[in-house]
Amino acid sequence: xxxxxxxxxxxxxxxxxxxxVRYVSQSSGIFAPLVxxxxxxxxxxxxxxxxxGFQTSQGGDIGLALLAGVFFGIGGTALYRAFAIGPxxxxxxxxxxxxxxxxxxxxxxxAPATALEWAMVGLIICGVAYIAQSDSGHDHDPRPSPLxxxxxxxxxxxxxxxxxxxxxxATATGGELLLLAPTRAAALAVVLGFALLMRAxxxxxxxxxxxxxxxxxxxxxxxxxxxxxxxxxxxEFAAIGASTFGVITxxxxxxxxxxxxxxxxxxxxxxxxxxIGILGGGH
Length: 283
Fold this sequence. Notes:
This protein is mostly helical and 283 residues long. Helices cover 75% and strands 0% of the residues. It has 12 helices and no strands.
């Protein structure tokens, strides 16, 4: 149950973060907000990691933490790119499917999932996919082919699944706080490398600075919660809970941006959280 709670906290943080992304990306492009979100997050977690390092020099695998950060940077870049070229209703379900990989990875490592657990994972993914269709009003923007968006989405899903699986391994013996900064630094290095390679503008808009700082805090909290679940009995459930960030984003859009949600989509929201409750009830 602890892993699921951590995952839901991460989903709440990422859902709020995504609502903010919808605003800043309209005028700042893809790489500038992503780089600054990671940078602000690194500033926030560095003192925490330093304090943890002074308390103890043991616990955790820094090599695996850096590798998890590399995949997190790749996943973040792929996610931003996918949402830039494809509609939400197409991209979100594919990215939201990463819990299948997380549970599958756990099964291969001696923690087989039951049929009920697989059914609940499937319900969560289907619910997220259905709710994401609330953005269908953007159909009028034609795309020559959905393949590029699908490809980037699959890359993002696989990268996030690897991030969480490797991050859980890195913190299986402790060191969650100690490894926060190395993980984020590696992610920032990857994204910054991509941005420089593509000569993307990275200037920080002053009016966006407070919002980007908030986004960095939320993103750091989210990845810290998911990877910090590495010492729980079923850490993959944190990844499952975090996958509901798409639901949170749509709910917040309905509340704050007044985007309409159909009655059947509200039923899907209920179904997703019911499935999470069933998963948590057995653990």
